[in-house]
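Task: complex structure prediction.
Instruction: return structure tokens for all chains below.
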Amino acid sequence: MMAAALNLQDTAAQALGLMRDAGFDDAQVTAVHARLDELSVAHNEPSLLRSTESHKLMLLGLVDGRVASTEVTRLERGDVLERILGLFADAKSAPRDEANAVSGGQHARIVQGPQEPDRELLAAKTSELLAFRARETPRMMIDEGAALHQWQRWHTLTTRGSDLAAAIGCYSINVFGTAREGSKSSSFNYTGGAADELASRPVQEYFGIAHMLRDTERQIETRPFDGKFVGDVVFTPNAVADLLGWLLGQLGDTQLIAGSSLYNESVGEQVASPLFSLRSRFDAPGIAALSTDGFLAAPVTVVDQGRLKVLTPSLYGSRKTGLKHVPVAPGGWDIAAGPTPLAQVIGGVQRGAIVGRMSMGMPAANGNFSGVIKNSFAVEGGEVGPALSETMIAGNMAQMLRDIVAVSSEVIDAGSTRLPWIRIANLHFS
Amino acid sequence: MSYLETRRHELRKRRILMVDGNLTLNSQTSEAGASARAYDRGYWGFASTNDTSAAGIERVTVQARQNALAMRRFGAKSVLALHEGTYRGEHVFAGRPAIGQDECVERMAAISAWCRQRYPDLKSMRVLFGDEHHSKRLSTSTGSEVLNSIQRALCYVTFTAVGADGAPVELMEVFSGKGSLADLDLSPEHMAPALDALHRHVHAKGEAVAARGGKHTVVLAPELAGMLAHEAMGHPCEADLVLGGAVTRDLVGQRVASDLVTMIDIANTYDGQEVMIPVYADDEGTPARDAVLIKDGILTEFMNSRETAARLGLEPTGSARAYAPSDEPLVRMRNTAILPGTSRLEEMIAGVDDGYFLMKTANGQADSTTEFMFGISLAYEIRNGKLGRAVRDTTLSGSAIKVLQTTDAVSNDMSWNCSGYCGKKQPMVVSMGGPALRVQAHLGGE
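Output:
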């Protein structure tokens, strides 16, 4: 909708020149152009068609070891210059920190995924989704759903010679809703993901959509577990994503710099069951293999058969802690599938639950957590029982990684993550 | 029936994070945009751009209309008679002149240095400053012309200590208010009582015991009662979630809480004072009014947009709000509170033989069933009416309807905060408030 396409490289180069002129010792500039086409569903009906377009400049400047950053969407030269002068004042007011630096010598040109939206495809997939719901899971209310195409191109330049450009497009489907019968409702449930194409399969075969809709219909009638016990859980990929998020947080800057990571001294050590391996897939749909601080993100294995291979500090985190710098993309992770069919993963549970979603606060600094299990089913003697309500589990995130006893051969590929079902022993149910 | 709204929207945010004296985040962002949303023959079209000029508004208006038209490919749809409420007015908070990044950093450094000197045993400390300013100028085809300006500021201070088992223990205190960071008193002297208490609590947590999992009598500090209001019954009373199948749909006029409980989503004024997130007209230009969700324990009404009100045959409440320039308005809470009662907090604790006093929450989540969850980051045992040992991080949960029906005491004080974001497709700045409550609820633990 902008009158003319912006030349991102020129825009970034001009801003970098202005930052040099303003007196910055070093700088990183990223010019961004993004478009979104989204077809929304509300309450089981097509509802809204959205098209958005935006441009912005992301600026980071260093002067005398001091740093500040900003984002602006007004890109006229006068507006940008005014903000750069303000940014210089912001940086000058910061404490000096020799760990601050910008990337250098990085070069990349990445074009990935569908670059133009196919609105006919979005409409067809929306119709398919609504037809599947009406035919197969009529008690399901899709409260919010969307079929969308996102596209973003950006160009990053630094005063140290890094020159990185990417144009990434992808399709996504998101489904959020509740099943209802009479006056009873299930808990809400959701799934979604990103893909480079949506045309090769029926929509319900993407991102576990059919699983989610069918499971949610079975969650209208629920009951709590009786009493307290120690048992097993089978985390669905949606719940595994919480475990993954916690682990990645432990390996990143905030925890490493504060010295509060449980894995500060654990590289080379066994931190998880040998069944657990975590590696990057930085070429996943919607992801570019570039870190936000301007580095190419090479493929990396983070945990190999339970052994921690690397920590993932940014350039700043690395310079701050002395740890090896390991650039990672903002997403794109793969927990390796295991050898065990899902049915056997579940069949091995004597007493416990299939956990669709964890509703909980942030785990404590030592990894302890307790949370309500939602969208979950009881399992007794290997048999899947009724859906659960008012059931909590408690444990420790780090211990859960060590207590993994089975990993499914099936996975759900949601684009930025590809995750299996994982069975974990020794959780406290109440 | 057709409807059109256009919005010029600027969102300015500042975030500064100091970790042990190191500035790890020093950022100001500004996002300007223009959007249009059109309703035509039962379908919506939306478009946005960064170009806020008249030409930009014109382009997104044409695009939004085209998008609504394109939705007709899905066939004819029943057309809603949207309410035509109109509001004309400008509401801008007149706070102190904003302070610069340099002054913010000076104040953070002063807090850090003061804490290092006063609490030398801490392993680590973080100070986060943030403020954000939403300025929205709205025009609608119903004749509304509105300027809404909402500002809020916050400071988080997080202490990390080493627990008795050698593992790190964290706890956070929040200072928040209306306006920019200039409007908060962030001097160490002013913050000292709260920081001294935080230091005491983080050390108590270092020797904390696990909560006993199961149902208990718990006294919720006012901070948690606000979260209970927001998460447990607030979300299930948002009309779009009601339409989506929330159990509250069939409960209007029925008892959902003890008669000690009255809960309101306040539009702009409480007890004669403007609240932290004042909404005089929402982002659809609808005049905003209080939504009395629960009156003396009886579920009374829902929060509505123009569309949900038309679908449910109700009056809109002015609850449709959009977070970013590229967002469309959704039904969102504003300032959700349980109103104070007559008990004193000390007496409420003294009346518990065996239970817990829950003081701080990290986050919460709601459900269509009204089953809620809060992370509890600070709690103490209550034994024979007295506070005992600290309790490790745990989770509080239950069905809001069952829990609120067990309310047997509501304190006579009231605490407000607006430090977090509500998440529902888009983030949103909200405030929440409440007195202390004594209820029966489920705690996670061994």
